[in-house]
Amino acid sequence: MAGTGTYLLIDRTITSLSGSSQSLMAQNMNRNMLILNNTGNASVGVNLVGGTAVIGGAGTITIVTNGSLVLDSNQIGNAINIIGTAGQPFAAFETQSS
Hints:
- Helices cover 0% and strands 41% of the residues.
- The radius of gyration is 13 Å and the shape is globular.
- The chain is mainly beta.
- A 4-stranded antiparallel beta sheet has the order 1-8-3-6, with no helix packed on it. Strands 2-7-4-5 form a 4-stranded antiparallel beta sheet, with no helix packed on it.
- It is built from no helices and 8 strands.
């Protein structure tokens, strides 16, 4: 992880996506790690810069079914938005210094 010390692991999992762009994580300038795992049955789009999530759109990363994204950086404090098929789950965690 970025730096040393004690970190809090915070569960931001969504059990049922809405089908439109929605908030996954609020802005958190203390966030130092992001763990995303698409546990659903279709691709999802994740916008890491606080904009509207659009699969294939600018600023949005597509995560395929069973795909994961792990970012270990002090530069991921923006709000994060997600879009995916309505009803599908998505696992998400963030860490921050305690």
